[in-house]
Specification:
The complex is a heterodimer of chains A (791) and B (263).
Chain A: H1 15-19, E1 35-41, E2 47-53, H2 55-59, E3 63-68, H3 69-72, E4 104-105, E5 111-117, H4 120-128, E6 131-136, H5 143-146, E7 162-168, H6 171-179, E8 183-191, E9 203-209, E10 214-219, H7 224-235, E11 243-246, H8 262-274, E12 278-281, H9 284-290, E13 297-305, E14 311-323, E15 350-359, H10 373-391, H11 395-402, E16 411-412, E17 418-419, H12 424-435, H13 440-449, E18 453-462, H14 470-475, E19 484-490, E20 496-500, H15 509-521, E21 528-531, H16 549-575, E22 583-586, E23 589-592, E24 598-600, H17 601-609, E25 624-629, E26 638-647, E27 654-664, H18 671-691, E28 722-726, H19 743-760, H20 774-785
Parallel strand pairs in A: 1-12, 10-11, 14-15, 20-21, 27-28
Antiparallel strand pairs in A: 1-5, 2-4, 2-6, 3-5, 7-15, 8-13, 9-10, 9-12, 13-14, 16-17, 18-26, 19-20, 19-25, 22-23, 23-24, 26-27
Chain B: E1 5-7, H1 12-21, E2 25-28, H2 34-39, E3 47-50, E4 60-62, E5 66-70, H3 75-80, H4 86-92, H5 98-103, H6 106-112, H7 119-126, E6 129-132, E7 136-138, H8 139-142, E8 143-145, E9 148-149, E10 157-163, E11 167-174, E12 181-190, E13 193-199, E14 207-208, H9 210-218, H10 243-262
The chains are: A alpha+beta (791), B alpha+beta (263).
Chain lengths: 791, 263
């Protein structure tokens, strides 16, 4: 292994500029003659717009234009990227999602008017002068009330607020499995709604060049080509060759920056109308009411087991909150990214899943780190732990008994997916060792002496990532392909630029991808640049989400690199007057086998651009190759997370005292970056389990609209993580990689809650919901002490 | 933030004058509450009179039986002072984060009387005196309600004088999100007896817990503390803590404070 190749913990190339304030984020970009936008948003969750008086705003100092829904009504709606059908095969309800509200507002934060002025303060002042005549309508926030049929309607064309009623599997067949069951364990859980909170708020700059007719959008996106397609084709009807989308340095996404947002369309559409570039940057409070939220599922599930504790069947009934409008990938999250994972790491033979997607007067909900897979994992691992407790089985034993054995791969689950590789005993063993499971009883006894209740919780999980084969997702309703592209440009002196359709917003691609190149071409890391995030530079790209960058984008780079070395061998054979078959390429050198002839990679690169004697009928000048890669399957990282907590029974405070993660993410390119990704994911998982919760009141007002009430995890909420990886290779990509971006957030939440319940069991508590806040734990303890008081 | 006129007087008299001239003028000390409020456009004073230029307002003076802390003294300075009773220094050292402690001031905190702030509980429990440009106000008369004090218009806090207690301890149960006091209890043994002040919990702001004071006067031990007589309807309830939970936490925090004092 070279010190810059595959497997090396290379320090991140990009950190120098990030840590010294030299990043280039959208808000750092100022275009000549730029103007500023402020977006007036609805203060009400549901209201009819009876009138908008913008006269005073238009006349306010510095104001250049004020636009409302009346101006943008001719534009297309913000599109949804994934169609899901009902049980009867009919398509889902897909109400229009206007760029600016038309006739009604449907959530607090729904955009009502766009004010463009010379300065941001002037735009904001002018917005205060807009008279909004809103007739408040009853709002619906609660999913049960929303589908009851008699309450408020979010959209007239979605009866009972139902987006779709979908199913996977045959309910009657699974019912059959329950008839033979010795035990049935049931659970009702809520997967709490989260606000993504990327460190960089969203921003967008729209620009129009009258000379060329070209539009440019600078935006905080995880996938600029996808935005170009969605906004250009569906909203603004602009052709690709006249629309450039740039996503420069982006400060965190976690899914929330995948989607096409109305603000991007507003500034792009308004730029030629104002005749100058328009910049919009969200304030933090605005992020809370305009970034797509995450999770928000309510689920009932039943697990059938035989008398030995073997799983026979699983039925899962989920209600998923869509919010007021369908965000880009909202519809696939509770279905194709959730229900297809309900086998987990287990051999459960029969599984049925029903999902009702429901509109409410809240911010749209979409994928957030893990997207559907954390919801599936949380459900399964809570249910499995509950089954072990109810049956009096050990938490490890019930899992091992039901694991898909390592010699059973490829393994076809009953819920559509085929797992290619894995070894769940290996990650469990590793985690048990790191967590010192054997020493837990002694630690629990010691904690009891200090008056603390100590508990241990498990989560053994698998997830599907590297999203994914176009043919598969297309058959499931995706309205896009999910391949990736890469271009390798070798410059005459042997340095290399890689143009990738993946997008880095914290993942470290500039380092990891450069390691692939260094390893393959045998050139130093500093001779490699990774170019991404600009539709005018990169040929095409589907972007970064679903832990897909290395498994899909990295493979595309490897494929293009293979084409480059093939071409370079042809050049080497020509120059060294040898047969192409005799050329070997190793450690950056081309040699002719059986001779001492050799040429360095740089010499071949130069020859490619100085082709004085090339036989042009056989050999083209230049050294640059393009590849598109569409994988055979998803990849399936998995592992075991073990959490240990101490609960203070006086206050209800839960402290995570040990957090162990043993993950199989396939081949590891940069162990340091992988560990960092796992740490970040664990922090978010612990945040969801103990701290974070988005709360709306009954009127649809966001109660947790700032950090005063929305609790983000901080360093002192987290222990020193014990993280390790084991390795089974992905069977269908050349690198054997699986993906590591989401495993921490997917695997950890149930381990934390199972640990809390384990700690509280001796006091008679059998259930606690996320987030397990001090108040909630204290109330559960009190209710268990005084059963009557709980009523 | 709306536009405003900014003044930075170098004397209290000039500050009073500037305050009187503005149509809707406001004093600003560390600005840890006012500036964010203005940025959110929830406050829009016509004039800001910055007390940061008045040198007399900064500093800590040891008077033997008491310590006088200038209104513009930062939390960080109080935390680092050996002249300040250790319980008070510890309280100051755990307010907000490092940035807040280096900007926020005792005068600003006391004048704002945020119901979840730490300092008001120390003032009440230690029997402090609020010294203004016009008079001296005992802490027991100063905090008149949520965000309300006995300060008159154009009255400016010069200093806070704390009698040194025999012993004291402050226990804060933090709001998980904001890290303000969800419940904070300051227990002090003073020459006038045991005083117990509670912040974060009362729906009328900081208050003294009379029953707990009486119980501890008779028996200064954690077992003597019982918070159940504090009326639940006098306490705040929100998404982080119901009034019942706050009532319970007052007892837990008071017991921990007493245990810390007893060592």
């Amino acid at each position: 292994m070279s010190d810059t190749g595959i497997g090396a913990s290379v320090k991140r190339k990009e950190d120098q500029r990030f840590l010294t304030g030299r990043g280039n984020y959208t808000d750092d970009i100022d275009r000549p003659n730029q103007t500023y936008a402020y977006i007036l948003r609805s203060p009400m969750a549901h209201a009819r717009i009876k009138g908008l008086n913008i006269d005073a705003a238009k006349a306010a100092p510095g104001v250049l234009a004020v636009f409302t829904g009346a101006d943008t009504a001719g534009l297309g709606g913000i599109p949804c990227g994934w169609g899901v059908n009902n049980k009867d095969g009919s398509p889902m309800n897909e109400p229009k999602h206007p760029v600016l509200a038309e006739g009604k507002v449907r959530h607090v934060g729904d955009p009502v008017a766009l004010v463009v002025a010379e300065t941001y303060a002037q735009a904001k002042d002018a917005a205060e002068a807009i008279e909004m005549d809103l007739e408040e309508l009853p709002a619906v926030v609660n999913m049960e009330k929303a589908i009851a049929g008699s309450g408020p309607q979010v959209h007239d064309d979605a009866p009972s607020n139902l987006c779709y009623d979908w199913e996977l599997g045959d309910e009657a067949e699974v019912d059959g499995a329950f008839k033979d069951a010795a035990h049935v364990v049931s659970i009702d859980i809520t997967n709490n709604r989260l606000v993504p909170n990327a460190m960089e708020p969203r921003a967008a700059i729209g620009e129009f060049d009258k000379a060329t007719g070209e539009y440019t959008l600078y935006t905080t996106s995880q996938n600029p080509h996808v935005i170009r397609l969605l906004m250009g084709a569906f909203v603004l009807q602009l052709p690709e060759h006249k629309l450039r989308v740039v996503a420069p340095d982006v400060g965190g996404g976690f899914g929330s920056k995948i989607y096409h947002y109305a603000e991007e369309a507003m500034v792009t559409w308004a730029a030629p109308r104002v005749g100058r570039p328009i910049k919009w940057v969200a304030e933090r409070a605005e992020s809370f009411i305009s970034d797509a939220h995450g999770r928000d599922h309510i689920t009932h599930a039943d697990l059938a087991l035989d008398k030995e504790g073997k799983f026979l069947g699983l039925k899962v009934y989920t209600k998923a909150n869509m919010g007021a409008y369908l965000s880009t990938f909202s519809t696939c999250v509770p279905t194709y990214l959730h229900s297809t994972l309900l086998a987990g790491v287990y051999t459960t033979p029969k599984i049925y899943s029903e999902v009702k997607a429901i509109f409410t007067n809240t911010v749209p909900v979409d994928a957030y780190r893990g997207a559907g897979r954390p919801e599936a994992t949380y459900l399964l691992e809570r249910l499995v732990s509950k089954a072990a407790w109810e049956l009096g089985m050990d938490q490890v034993e019930i899992r091992r008994k039901n694991f898909i054995p390592k010699d059973a791969f490829p393994y076809q689950t009953p819920v559509a997916l085929q797992y290619d590789s894995g070894d769940y005993d290996a990650t469990l063993d590793k985690a048990l060792e790191l967590a010192d499971y054997a020493g837990f009883p002694a630690r629990k006894a010691e904690a009891a002496k200090r008056g603390k209740l100590r508990g241990i919780g498990f989560s053994t999980y698998v997830e599907a990532c590297g999203i994914a084969p176009s043919a598969v997702v297309g058959s499931l309703g995706a309205r896009a392909g999910l391949f990736e592209s890469a271009n390798v440009r070798v410059h005459p002196t042997g340095s290399v630029s890689i143009f990738t359709g993946s997008h880095s917003h914290g993942q470290g691609h500039e380092t990891t991808f450069a390691q692939l190149v260094s390893d393959t071409l045998g050139i130093p890391l500093e001779n490699v640049d990774i170019v991404h995030g600009d539709t005018n530079k990169v040929a095409f790209g589907m972007g970064t989400y679903g832990s897909r960058s290395l498994a899909v984008g990295g493979e595309a780079i490897m494929k293009a690199l293979g084409k480059v070395t093939d071409k370079a061998k042809k050049i080497a054979a020509h120059i060294m007057e040898a047969s192409e078959a005799d050329i070997e390429f190793k450690d950056g050198k081309f040699t002719v086998s059986g001779t001492d002839k050799e040429m360095a990679f740089g010499e071949i690169a130069l020859a490619a651009y100085v082709p004085h004697n090339f036989p042009h009928d056989q050999l083209e000048p230049g050294l640059e190759e393009q590849a598109f890669y569409d994988p055979m399957n998803f990849t399936f990282p998995g592992g075991c997370h073990i959490c240990e907590v101490e609960v203070d029974p006086d206050t209800g405070v839960v402290e995570v005292v040990n957090m162990t993660a043993a993950d199989d993410v396939g081949r590891v390119i940069n162990p340091m970056i992988v560990e960092g990704q796992i740490h970040g994911g664990l922090a978010q998982g612990i945040g969801q389990a103990l701290l974070e919760q988005c709360i709306y009141d009954e009127d649809g007002q966001l109660v947790t609209g700032s950090y005063m009430d929305y609790c983000m995890p901080r360093a002192d909420n987290l222990p020193d993580f014990k993280a390790a990886t084991t390795e089974t290779l992905c069977a269908h990509n050349s690198l054997g990689v699986k993906g590591c971006g989401e495993v921490g957030a997917i695997g950890s939440p149930p381990s934390v809650i199972n640990a809390v319940i384990d700690a509280l069991r001796e006091r008679g508590v059998t259930d606690i919901s996320m987030p397990a806040t001090p108040q909630k734990v204290w109330q559960a303890l009190r209710a268990a002490e005084m059963p009557a008081a709980a009523e | 933030m709306h536009n405003f006129d900014y003044h930075r007087p170098s004397s209290l008299d000039d500050a009073v004058a500037a305050l009187g001239k503005g149509e809707d003028a406001s004093l600003v000390a560390g600005g840890m509450t006012l500036i964010p409020t203005m940025k959110q456009r929830l406050a829009a004073p016509s004039d800001l009179v910055d007390l940061g230029g008045i040198a007399d307002l900064v500093g800590i003076k040891d008077d033997g039986d008491s310590v006088t802390i200038g209104a513009m003294t930062t939390h960080a300075a109080v935390a680092a002072s050996s002249a300040v009773p250790p319980s008070l220094a510890a309280l100051a050292g755990n307010i907000g984060d490092a940035q807040v402690r280096n900007r926020g001031t005792i005068g600003g905190s006391v004048a704002n009387n945020d119901p979840t702030a730490c300092y008001p509980s120390a003032c009440l429990a230690l029997g402090a005196t609020i010294v203004t440009n016009a008079r001296e106000i005992p802490a027991d008369d100063f905090f008149t309600g949520m965000f309300e004090t006995a300060l008159e218009e154009s009255e400016i806090i010069k200093a806070v004088r704390f009698p040194k207690p025999e012993a004291g301890n402050y226990q804060k149960f933090e709001n998980p999100a904001s890290r303000y006091a969800l419940v904070g209890v300051f227990v002090a043994k003073t020459k006038d007896g045991v005083r117990v002040a509670v912040t974060g919990a009362g729906n009328d702001g900081v208050f003294r817990a009379g029953d707990i004071e009486q119980a501890l006067s008779a028996n200064f031990s954690p077992d003597a503390v019982d918070s159940s007589s504090i009326p639940v309807d006098s306490l705040n309830g929100d998404i982080h803590a119901s009034a019942e939970y706050r009532q319970h936490l007052i007892g837990v925090m008071a017991r921990r404070a007493v245990a810390a004092i007893n060592g």
